Amino acid sequence: MILNISNRLDAFIERIGQISSWFIFILVLQVSADVLFRYFFHISSIAEPRVTMAYLAIIAMIGSAYTFQQGEHVRVDLFYAHYSEKVKQWMDYYHPCFYNHTLFTFYNIFIKRVCNAVLYNRGSLSGSWRFTL
To answer: How far apart are CA 65 and CA 49, in angstroms?
Structure first.
């Protein structure tokens, strides 16, 4: 049963990786169109960089599971190559936990407060950086 769940999860992550590769194609088209409109037609929009950042965030979040599954995630190979297999397995297991915790903390402290300030039209972002634990 656990092997079946693991195989389904691996297949799902593989499919998500394929989908995120299409997001990269969309991102390239978006940036190309932004450059074309800005420098050749002298048309620019404030929304263009924000949409580009949104695409990049989608790619990073969706693609991170796929790159970790394929063993291509970013790490400092200068140090990693000299570690024993046990230390490498430990790092491969616990690194996503620390990484996800950091992203979750960043989301709760910064993104959530800025989005609330913008969405609920509080007028300004002054004081939105303050948080309570």
So the answer is: 25
Residues 127 and 85 in one domain: yes
Q: Which two tokens stand for residue 94?
A: 């616990």
Apex CA 54: angle with CA 124 and CA 105, to 5°? 65
The pLDDT tens digits of the residues spanning 33-70 come to 888 988 888 887 777 887 888 888 878 877 877 887 77
Q: Are 84 and 121 contained in the same domain?
A: yes
User: 82 and 70 in one domain?
Assistant: no
Phi, psi values for residue 73, rounded to 5°:
-70, 160
Whether residue 52 contacts residue 30, with contact meaning beta carbons closer than 8 Å, is answered with: yes
